[in-house]
Amino acid sequence: MRVAGKGVIDRSKAVSFSFDGRRYSGFAGDTVASALLANGVSLMGRSFKYHRPRGVLSAGSEEPNALITTGTGAGQEPNVRATVQEIYEGLVTRSQNAWPSLDFDVMAVNDLAAPFLGAGFYYKTFMWPKRFWEAVYEPVIRKAAGLGALSGQNNPDTYERAYAFCDLLVIGAGPAGLMAALTAARAGADVILADEDSLMGGRLNAESGAVGHQSGAVWAAGIVAQLSAMDNVRLMSRTTVTGAYDGGMYGALERVNQHTGIRGAGAPLEAFWRISARHSILAAGALERPIAFRNNDRPGIMTAGAVRAYLNRWGVAPGKRVAVFGNNDDAHRTARDLAAAGVHVVALIDSRPDAVIEGATFPVFKGAQVCNSGGRKALESITIRTDSGEEALQVDCLAMSGGWNPTVHLTCHMNGRPSWREDIQAFVPTPGSIPDMTVAGACNGVFSTRACLSDGVEAARTALGALGRKAPAEMALPEAEDTPYALSPLWAVAGAGRAWLDFQNDVSVKDIKQAAAENFSSVEHMKRYTTQGMATDQGKNSNVAALAILADATGRGIPQTGTTTFRPPYAPVAIAAMGAGAQGHGFAPERHTTSHKRSVAMGAPMIEAGLWYRPSYFPKAGETTWQQSCDREVGYVRKAVGICDVSTLGKIDIQGPDAARLLDFVYTNMFSTLPVGRVRYGVMLREDGTVMDDGTTARLGAEHFVMTTTTAAAGNVMRHLEFVCQALHPEWEVSCTSVTEQWAQFAVAGPMARALLNGMLDKPIDNESWPFMACGDVQLGGVAGRLFRISFSGEHAYEIAVPSRYGAAAFDALLGRAEQMGGGAYGMEALNVLRIEKGFITHAEIEGRATAFDIGMARMISAKKDCIGKTMAARPGLVDALRPQLVGLKPVEPGGRLTAGAHLFEREAPAIRENSKGHVSSVCYSPELGMMIGLGFFAAGPARHAEVIRLVDHLRKVETEVEICHPVFLDPQGERARG
Amino acid sequence: MREGLTGNKGWGPHWRNPEPKAEYDAIIIGGGGHGLSTAYYLAKNHGMTNIAVLEKGYLGGGNVGRNTTIVRANYGQQGNSEFYSHSLKLWEGLEEDLNYNAMHSARGLINLFHSDGQRDAFARRGNMMINQGDDAELLDREGVRHLLPYLDFDNIRFPVYGGLLHRRGGTARHDAVAWGYARGADQRGVDLIQQCEVTGIDIENGQVRGVQTTRGAIRAKKVGIVVAGRSGQVAAMAGMRLPIESHVLQAFVTEGLKPVIDHVVSFGMGHFYISQSDKGGLVFGGDLDFYASYASRGNMPMMEHVMEAGMTLMPMIGKAKVLRSWGGIMDMTPDGSPIIDKTDTQGLFIDCGWCYGGFKAVPGSGFSFAHLMATGEHHAPAARYRLDRFRTGRGLMDEEATGSQHNLH
Amino acid sequence: MRIECPMCGSRDRREFYYQGAAVMLARPDPQAHEADWEAYLHLRENPAGPTRELWQHDGGCGAWLVVTRDTVSHQISDTQLAADVKRAMGKAS
What we know:
heterotrimer; A: FAD/NAD(P)-binding domain; six-stranded mixed beta sheet; 23 helices; elongated; C: Folate-binding fold; four-stranded antiparallel beta sheet
């Protein structure tokens, strides 16, 4: 219920929202948790394993219990912290992990079976009889586990990613962070101040103490106003710094529209930032820890700091009759604030017999402990244990405090381990854990407000020093609370029953002790065996207590026991935020050729080739299968003329006095002997002796070559050439430039290819001026282009290149002429048939394991020179006569089916691994030969032409007798290409 | 069930904490999954119980406890095919063998393909699997849609052409495997010695004599190095240089969610794979961070790339929130396949180079390495895992076909 | 992670391609012993600590770099053009 006069919410703006189908009203500035508490709702969730009823434990992102689902339909969002989610008009929320309802959850029966479901229960049970784990137990456990549910539909919301750069990143806008940012900003540094909360100020918004002459909240608002007026400061609220990475990089999640109902394009729901900071200050504060006692998990039991936050920030009293239980002075504030606000404080219970408690207007129990709680779905009573025995108190809210843990998490992200401080019974960051990070305030173990303000200034001075900037001479510090922080450790109250540590995962003190008894005494073993600390809070609320109990059970101190590490992200981050922009086609760039539009207009299905799109085939009216189109297109090339866009092949311009030397070194064969105006085919190896790529290179001048690569390998080859030029032979005078995008290039292939070109070139060519493998400059309708007489089809063929801006027009013109001559465009399917018929290889054959020896090109490795890969290609295993080598394959029965990916066996050998002697790499139906043909690799295959072997494809249920043949099926003398 | 009724008090220690003896018949350096399974099979199959496992940290603290828990036998190259086939068969009998629930779950693994060429490459692999006696099915697009209706079939950057389904592939509970082997080895008398770092390997006249440790010298007739992630450092103690470069591989888990992904799905075009654990977390990962590293943590570029791949493939996971990311150190070899071999030092053996295929190999690796250490003979399914294959070029197993650059496998 | 390209300045790691140990600069003679080639192509010092390695600024100027980087902390202490390093190696031998 609301408390008059308290809180920094806007009571003039009522906001309505729903939870589990019921409408509730809150105020602008409320979270779902504060608004529900204000409405008297304390049951907000069910635990993971035992489905125990739970309410809020905290008032921040570390909340383990109050996880809800927001939204409906495709955009529903599971596992949202009710303590973080701000309410907005029309917000729909519901509870999760309960069926049929939060109030009555059938799975709560697990709680009764708890004796069977203790630590490590999975490992010791559920395995008999054989296979029952998978068949029976696992499906049941899977269904019962999990928290919220995804919608199962494509995420409809938009997200963004962005970069930011700064001199100083300040993480956390509490008293330390605000002073650090102000100090650094006044020194002129570029500052980013990021805070997880919607409202900057940190604990100042949750405490009643004054800063200077103002309330903490008003003081904080004033500093924020000053900062926001400075050009060198960027304030990022609702922004969680999620990870610390190498080189001063930080990940951060900004919840841009999670607090509004705005959805759709142009309004990202969240943005994931990569912040590059020269220095950082971690001022992330501290998190309060609960105390373990029997039934310490009932709705209504929360941390003392959370109770103050609900009271002071949101004006909500989480109960009508409240007790406070702690082991430290800080807890006293909760009792005092509640009493001052007129809330009935039933008792302040301090576990320390010598606690000093001044000015109490409520009953005080020193040296006492809370040892049990009563109630069903809400707290009704607690049992306290004093020197005089046990006593029940009727309460509906218990505020507990086991002390505070500095928020060290980010300092662990680069494998740093925090250090134990005995005086505050907590881990603090170990200096130097993150390079160029300074830690300040409560997360450095500095707990009073005044000390935090001062520590923030000091941290900024350190940072400014590191940045080489002069710090402001004097930073005035306001007066503020400066009381020492005193506590005596109390991790768990002794007694029977289950005392909870990890609330969400239902890990109890007993589970930790059991793990220790089973010799899971390493802290990592304990964590993994019990699942302690593996819930969505990553153990923020419970790890230190669990560690202390393990240390006790194993007879070691806490520092000797060690700690598990914290991994990024600090708070969970949506996959959609970190992968923003990739949904649909955003995952990778798309490359289009200059003929793309025309190809699409012609109805060609476009297929992926690397990042490029290429036409598969060009369907014509009356054709019902791709095969019909393909056969027709093959016919164009074999009988008339076909046009194909080959611009996607890599083109590398190589110039300089040592250009020929470079080519001799990267190709197995000689290029220095290539005359100007000629083209040569070359094979390129990796240094390990396997084939990297193949292609043709044209010599346009004495010191000028143009290399073509396959589409897939263009990038790799370019990098390889640069490696040779820069890292192996920087003394060579040669430069390489990728010109793939600069030239549009088209194959003009078929017996009528020259006739077609001669109708278009400004100067006609003939066989004498332009023989097979010739190249040179030409004019095409006044445009300077290049012509290469090369063939990937075995036919009389050319490739003509024009600057890309003329590509679309050139394609149209070439296509128009071809169609007049009874030809037309051909796509990838036809190209594949044409090359298989001629035994030309692609990356289906040179797939990364094949050597020059395997593809029958061992003789292309020139004996006269060194080249990349030559030495390693000569390793005995790479020239073994029994290696599978390139062969042609045709079915013994003309109608026999061949499939790529099938394995090859001797005729009588069973089709088992030991007998596999090769495989089929490419197949097609050859319209010319009227049957299927294939390329493949077979052990010692070239020596076995005309022998019959067996093709077995278990997957496609194909078994075919095939004859080994020469891989060139058509025109073995190559007369057509030369004609 | 009896334990539940008596308050779980009867479960004693899973293993003892023995003091190291002065001498053993054999020492295993490394108490990770492979080291523990080696010890187990040395004891069980070869009767060698006077042996010790030396672990510098805690048992199962290496990659066996920080992986994406995938178990499969879907390799395409001779050598790997028979090895992983053997290992999967051991997985299938593991729970009965160890009397420990490793939660092995053959939920089926699907490798997606996105072009005709990839389909044929996967067909070649699938046929190898069946040749070996394992299972594989080639699914077309509709076959994939039937099993994985939540993929973005309409708008994905690299359209789904189909997939290779390996029904016996699946997952297991990673820690449980290490603990099960540890418990089994301990019960057979093996000394599992934690917090014991090996600082030197004693060799005399080409014969191993024992090791130096932070808990004193220990003599042994045979020593096995099984320290993936640190192989180079330990091998250097014996004067060896390995064909290995260490790289970090990240993995991610989301908050718990109700069941939504029933299989293991692998998206080759995006280097992305995912499954859902029994606790409900989506467990997924991608490629190496690509630079040499001994830091068990990754950086943002690969993390974001993995998320991008997930978003283009299955945008329904967008609102799952990543709870934790972590990194493991991988021994990357020049062909992406492992090494189980003798060394030039008599009595010194090495098991390393698992790249990122080590988890599913835990049973097979221990079985074969134990065989080699006990008998001096290579175990048939692992007979190709020789150190000299890079020098001779014989029996290279380059599954990714990317060549001798360590980080590309 | 950010890398200081000598040509372009400090750039995000995403712009760079990693190849491996800088040993790849010292390509053996084709007639060298097979052990030299084995060491060049396959065997690695693979230190847990500072190491010299080859990167290329392929999303930028295309320069191949020799980066001195710690494999445990990932801190980069030096970046040079591979061409300069290679030239200096030539002079030294």
